[in-house]
Input
Amino acid sequence: MKNSILLIIFLFLVVPSTSHGKWNDKQGNPVEDTEWMKYSGDFGAQLLLIGDEKEFFKCWETPSETVNLETVSEINRGEPLITPIIFSGCYVNKSGNCMVSAALKILRPDGSTYADMPQVEVWENKPPPPKGILEMGVGYLKVIIEPEDPDGTYTVQAKVKDNVKNSSFVLTRTFSVPSHKEAKPNKQPDEEAIKELSQWFTYYYKASHSAQHIENINKMFQSGFFNKPSAVAPLIMFLAEFFRQNENMISGWEKSLHEIPQDENFYLLHSLWQANTDNALTALNNWPDLKSEKIIEKIKERPPVDLKTIEINSPAILDMLWATFMASGNILYVERIISSLSLPTDSKENDKRISNLLIVGAAKWSLSSNAMQHGLVFKTCQKFTESKDPKIRKAISEILEKVEESKAQQTH
Output
């Protein structure tokens, strides 16, 4: 089982649910609360289960008077499932911002925990959407059911909390996983191609820059690279840095970029915006497909993410930092990951303590793994053995010791 929270920038649409404390159907009639759709005062939220992520994005990004989102009740093994939360009417603090979070959990058919993300941002330190506007939460859980996972009905729970009003409610939905015999055929990605691209991705910063590398970008889309759980946000950041590293080649690549299928180019367009260079923005502004015009306009409504300064508040940020390092070889991103080792894990606030424990644990594991693969990461870690921060100094010493032991075992 694999799972991850992905920090994706979403867009909002006008919906008919503008009445106080109620959702409305397509005809404007009030709809009572359900297990997966509830209100508390003016604040309401819905839990969605989405299987076709690409179609979901297309539907969400298309301007419309109503929002018709197809949710799933059954998925096969090997197919991804995402759990976005949409909301409206969040309360604001003295700064005029909302503070909405969620605890996401998936239970197996026997009731045991399959996936657990206790602290996920829905909408924090941001102004509320206008009245009558439905907004997509920032974080969500994405999982893929593995061959060894049990058949049966899984339960998704989302405890959504408006921290300004200090009120919360639990949203619940279920999906079933059929037995192997009942499962519908599922087209699998080309594993060999993904393996080769993963190797290229991991060590790109060591390669000499070549115009030929755009072929690998096309292959990433063709081989279903973006279908991998937890891949989307890191890949967008990798591509953004790839474009920054190859700024002078972008204009010569535009024809190849335009050949990427329309249902895949949402990620490509995001990457060009995130790159935030003259030639990347020119390529974005001159995009020939008029159907993507509205998508591009919405993408531009939010500034590019600055990974050099963004708060590390989930393991997903670590993944994005690693992806950017692999595209650039810039140790600043490794140093930012090392800095997360100092996060307090003894907070009296339970959610914060659990969140930091997850981040620190992910940082230790990823530093150990990448210090084994990348000499540059190993050397960067060595610089912190004399860190003034005792937490960092202790963690790095343990990481390097484990790496040295693993290397010694490999030589025998």
